[in-house]
């Protein structure tokens, strides 16, 4: 097994890694696209292709769903819970053993710094470990119907679950959906984003090595229009978990409605970070920086709105600007503090937001320009950007940018901060920094968000349910609540 250093050196010198899967993963084996077509995946740090993979369509989806249905009905749903747990636990161990390779592939494919990719791989392993332990704890209830009756409920696997995986967190999002689905006894057909297909394919190979029966997990690669749309509209799909944009999520929901297919939607965000004057200033600065500049701001739950109390505003924003300007940018495998954005399309979208803001006379305090890897002059990079004192109705406050752009709003006090925070079409997460614990929890109770972080942004882990309200979607992933997403409850009442 090659070390991380060897893999990084190879990837930087060759521009790729050998042995990457090029086909779909269907019925336990690699499979070429039915059409024979393929497409390229790009290294965002070089703005150049580094590998090819299968370009799937409805024919490949049909094969994958059929394989999943057979595996579910003939094998997996009747596999004892403890046996399912052992397979998932072995998968967690294999993911940890393969951390270096998975992380390097993730960095090449997504552009995120290697340290962040390694964290994502560790999180994926933890997800399989967590749900491995939950397999044989999934139990129903009994109902007190009196001495002449027996009443009880069962949690049954819903069937074949589709997973539509985004490009910003490919392996960790795949794991947080696939692991609970398998734990519940479902079979899965996964469709990773066309920008980042490889770690989902590698994950499927690892699960086969862990003992997962053929067909229980299938991966179809290709575009959203050609592979994703036929998957979510397929009548053989019993559940869809989708992570992505609001517009695409609405389309997924409409397509699923034709077959009355249940859905979990994790959509966009414009998450506020409330920083009050009595906060731990250093912790708040650290938290705000990580909330917006990790993964170059390409996170649904990024803290993209700073709502800061007026008495703290001037010095706090000045310090943020200095920190942002000092961030070291570069290719993901050179251990930068911030990497590129994922695609030329995304780079253009981010630049468009800032160009329009400048035309409106908005104060771009720092950043606000495209750039490149300082070592190679290549890649899709955007400078860390802070836009100060934004009006509540400004486009930068209202719309998700999905890039390294922080918009600043000024609050007069905690209640004003709460009103600003809730004035959004999104409600995914929120952050609060204050030394007043009672105030923090009063705010948490009133914030419209699926999850609230207090004094540490991105606090929590796989144990904590995650999902949004409003246009951020509905349903929950992670935690035991995420496991129940893949179950249907059957109630039984008998006269005895």
Task: Describe this protein with a few key phrases.
16 helices, alpha/beta, Aldehyde Dehydrogenase, Chain A, domain 1, 22% strand, globular
Main sheet: strands, sense, barrel: 7 strands, mixed
Assign an overall shape.
globular
Mean model confidence by pLDDT: 97
Helix-strand category? alpha/beta
Tally of individual helices = 16
| Count of spatially separate domains | 2
Computed Rg: 23 Å
Strand arrangement across the biggest beta sheet: 14-17-18-13-12-20-21
CATH class of the largest domain: Alpha Beta
Plain-language structure description:
- A seven-stranded mixed β-sheet has the order 14-17-18-13-12-20-21, with helices on both faces. A six-stranded mixed β-sheet has the order 9-8-7-10-11-23, with helices on both faces. A three-stranded antiparallel β-sheet has the order 5-6-24, with no helix packed on it.
- It is built from 16 helices and 24 strands.
- Helix 3 packs antiparallel against helix 5 (114-134) and helix 4 crosses helix 5.
- Helix content is 41%, strand content 22%.
- The model has no long low-confidence stretch (mean pLDDT 97).
- By secondary structure, the chain is of the alpha/beta class.
- It has helices at residues 4-14, 58-74, 81-97, 99-110, 114-134, 170-184, 198-209, 224-232, 246-257, 281-293, 310-326, 344-360, 395-398, 414-422, 437-446, 479-484, and strands at residues 24-26, 29-31, 38-43, 48-54, 142-143, 149-157, 160-165, 187-192, 217-219, 239-243, 262-266, 272-275, 305-309, 363-366, 370-371, 381-382, 385-388, 405-411, 426-427, 429-433, 451-454, 469-470, 473-474, 487-495.
- It folds into two domains: 4-267 and 473-492, Aldehyde Dehydrogenase, Chain A, domain 1; 272-461, Aldehyde Dehydrogenase, Chain A, domain 2, CATH 3.40.309.
């Amino acid at each position: 097994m090659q070390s991380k250093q060897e893999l990084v050196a190879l990837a930087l010198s060759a521009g790729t890694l050998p042995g990457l899967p090029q086909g779909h993963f269907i019925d336990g084996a690699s499979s070429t696209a039915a059409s024979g077509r393929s497409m390229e995946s790009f290294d965002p740090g070089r703005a150049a292709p580094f590998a090819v993979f299968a370009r799937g369509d409805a024919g490949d989806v049909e094969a994958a769903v059929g394989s999943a249905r057979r595996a579910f009905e003939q094998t997996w749903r009747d596999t004892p819970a403890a046996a399912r747990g052992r397979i998932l636990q072995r998968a967690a161990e294999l993911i940890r053993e393969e951390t270096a390779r998975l992380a390097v592939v993730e960095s090449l494919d997504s552009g995120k710094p290697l340290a962040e990719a390694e964290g994502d791989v560790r999180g994926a392993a933890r997800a399989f470990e967590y749900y491995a332990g939950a397999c044989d704890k999934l139990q129903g209830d009994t109902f007190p119907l009196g001495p002449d009756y027996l009443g009880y409920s069962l949690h049954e696997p819903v069937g074949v679950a589709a997973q539509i995986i985004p490009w910003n967190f490919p392996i960790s999002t795949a794991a947080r959906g696939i692991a609970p689905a398998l734990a519940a006894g479902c079979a899965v057909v996964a469709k990773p984003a066309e920008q980042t297909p490889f770690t989902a394919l590698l994950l499927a190979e690892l699960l086969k090595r862990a003992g997962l029966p053929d067909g229980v997990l299938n991966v179809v690669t290709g575009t959203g229009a050609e592979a994703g749309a036929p998957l979510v509209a397929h009548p053989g799909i019993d559940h869809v978990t989708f992570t992505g944009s609001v517009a695409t999520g609405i389309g997924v929901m409409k397509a699923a409605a034709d077959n009355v297919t249940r859905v979990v939607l994790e959509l966009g965000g414009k998450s506020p970070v409330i920083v009050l004057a009595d906060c731990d200033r250093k912790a708040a600065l650290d938290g705000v920086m990580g909330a917006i500049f990790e993964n170059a701001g390409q996170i649904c739950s990024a803290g993209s709105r700073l709502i800061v109390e007026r008495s703290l505003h001037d010095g706090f924003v000045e310090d943020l600007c200095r920190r942002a300007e000092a961030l070291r940018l570069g290719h993901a495998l050179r251990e930068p503090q911030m990497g590129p954005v994922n695609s030329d399309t995304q780079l253009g979208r981010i630049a468009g937001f800032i160009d329009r803001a400048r035309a409106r006379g908005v104060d771009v305090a720092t950043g606000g320009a495209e750039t490149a890897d300082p070592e190679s002059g290549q890649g899709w990079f955007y400078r860390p950007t802070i836009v100060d004192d934004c009006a509540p109705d400004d486009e930068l406050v209202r719309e998700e940018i999905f890039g390294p752009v922080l918009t600043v709003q000024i609050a007069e006090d905690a209640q004003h901060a709460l009103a600003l925070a809730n004035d959004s079409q999104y409600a995914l997460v929120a952050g609060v920094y204050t030394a007043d614990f009672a105030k923090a929890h009063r705010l948490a109770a009133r914030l419209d968000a699926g999850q609230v972080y207090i004094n540490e942004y991105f606090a929590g882990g796989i144990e904590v349910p995650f999902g949004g309200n409003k246009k951020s979607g509905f349903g929950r992933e992670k935690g035991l609540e995420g496991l129940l997403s893949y179950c249907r409850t059957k109630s039984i009442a008998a006269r005895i």
